[in-house]
Amino acid sequence: MAERRSPAFQATDKLAFLLSLVPYLMDHDRVTVAEAAAHFGVSEAQIRDAVNLIGLSGVPGDTAAYLHGDLFEVDYDALDRGEIVVMNFVAIDDSPRFSAREAAALIAGLQYLSALPENADRATLAELMAKLSRGASDEPTRVAVEQSASDETVALIRSAMDERLRIDFDYVNAEGEQRRRTVEPLRVESVDATWYLRGWDTDREAPRTFRIDRMSSVARSTAPVTHRPDEVPLSDSLFQGSGDDLVVTIEVAKSALPLLADYVPEGAAATEVEGRVRTSVRVSHYSGLKRLLAGMSGVATVVEPEAARNAVAEWAAAGAAQYRD
């Protein structure tokens, strides 16, 4: 009885299938017909037909004739034994390739991505790194991206979230105060190179945000969580205000105003003053204000209250004194 052919070999799809099969065979020096059929979800007969067609394909030489080396070369003896071995690939090396330096940069980026907890499919990333290494014009420089302590902490938080457990940790706030916290983890997010935990603070009975690099002695609790992530409303903004926040008036360059979007209260007035925008920001304490303005030297100025101006001025003077010493 003839084997029924799957829809994958309809005329409109055959070319796309062959274009996918050739790179697959390049990545596998020796693969069985059954493995290839399982990979593409087609019958073994269809795989054999495709391999036979590949063996009749190539690029003619200058004489417009197919000479030795102008065709894909298939080991038909191996094919009879149920294995696919292509001994010569045509025109593949003529395509543009990444330089060794370009491939090394991409591989380093993929190594970083594979270390992030949310990228669970590390096998796919590893396969892509191997392809980049093989397909470069020269052997890429060997690079490695070292994991940080935050990566390990993020992984532990993720596991606690999966098991719906609370976590305990020591936390140092922006004012340098340390205390033990118990939190029900809801979400892990990153901004630039900094990781944050958003969770339900059991002491304050409210959602709070914690910088993961300020957490230490992190441990999973045996106590189960009482709040599900879909039960606690979290704003799109990473930083959430509270009634205890301090409001500070600043003047900032118009181009830098988007950098403060998370700190500007909803509905805050914004007026232009001598080419700058005067508006207000919300901070939990003046230590947070100093940290915020540290990265905005020359583009942001504190206007009021006087206590905020003095706090920033004293902090800047202390920093300048360190350089003089």
Automatic annotation (TrEMBL):
Domain named WCX: residues: 247-318
Occurrences of domain WYL (ranges): 152-218
Superkingdom as given in the UniProt entry: Bacteria
Domain PafC HTH residue range list: 13-134
InterPro entries assigned to the protein according to its UniProt record, in alphabetical order: CBASS_pafABC_assoc_protein, PafC-like, PafC_HTH, WCX_dom, WYL_dom
PROSITE patterns: WYL
PANTHER family assigned to the protein according to its UniProt record, in alphabetical order: PROTEIN PAFC, PTHR34580
Protein known as: Helix-turn-helix transcriptional regulator
